[in-house]
């Protein structure tokens, strides 16, 4: 129990069974991004801080799998961090989405 909210109440708010919530709280199941944000709101926590810890946990899990690949991935992100268009461009193989510029053009013509 934290901030007066029981596991049963938290599970109900997150639309899951109490046993599933218990496994998530104890680290046996992963907590999803939306679940983490909902929990932050329910507990009155700063959602940005919670999201940073959630992301750090994801990075840690990746690091345990392959540190060298993760390091290379960070270099790619660092190289393109200031290039907003490169960061948000959807791969061309997924034709159901388009680049930001294409979406803006479509919105203007509607």
Description:
This protein is mainly alpha-helical and 110 residues long. It has 2 domains: 1-65, 434 Repressor (Amino-terminal Domain), CATH 1.10.260; 68-110, no CATH class. 67% of the residues lie in helices and 0% in strands. It has 7 helices and no strands. The protein has helices spanning 7-13, 18-25, 33-43, 47-65, 67-80, 84-88, 100-109. Helix 1 packs across helix 2 (18-25) and helix 3 runs antiparallel to helix 4. It is elongated, with a radius of gyration of 19 Å. 5% of the residues are buried.
Question: Structural class of the secondary elements?
Answer: mainly alpha
Largest sheet: none
Distance from N terminus to C terminus (CA atoms, Å) equals 51 Å
How much strand? under 5%
Indicate the radius of gyration in whole angstroms: 19 Å
Count of individual beta strands: 0
CATH homologous superfamily descriptor of the largest domain: lambda repressor-like DNA-binding domains
Helix content: 55-70%
Low-confidence spans:
93-98
């Amino acid at each position: 129990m934290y901030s007066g909210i029981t596991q049963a109440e938290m599970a109900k708010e997150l639309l899951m069974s109490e046993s599933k919530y218990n496994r998530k709280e104890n680290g046996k199941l992963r907590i999803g991004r939306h679940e983490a944000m909902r929990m932050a709101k329910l507990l009155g926590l700063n959602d940005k801080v919670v999201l940073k810890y959630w992301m750090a946990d994801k990075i840690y899990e990746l690091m345990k799998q392959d540190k060298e690949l993760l390091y290379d991935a960070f270099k790619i992100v660092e190289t393109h961090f200031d290039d907003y268009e490169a960061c948000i461009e959807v791969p061309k193989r997924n034709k159901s989405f388009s680049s930001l510029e294409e979406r803006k053009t479509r919105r203007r013509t509607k």
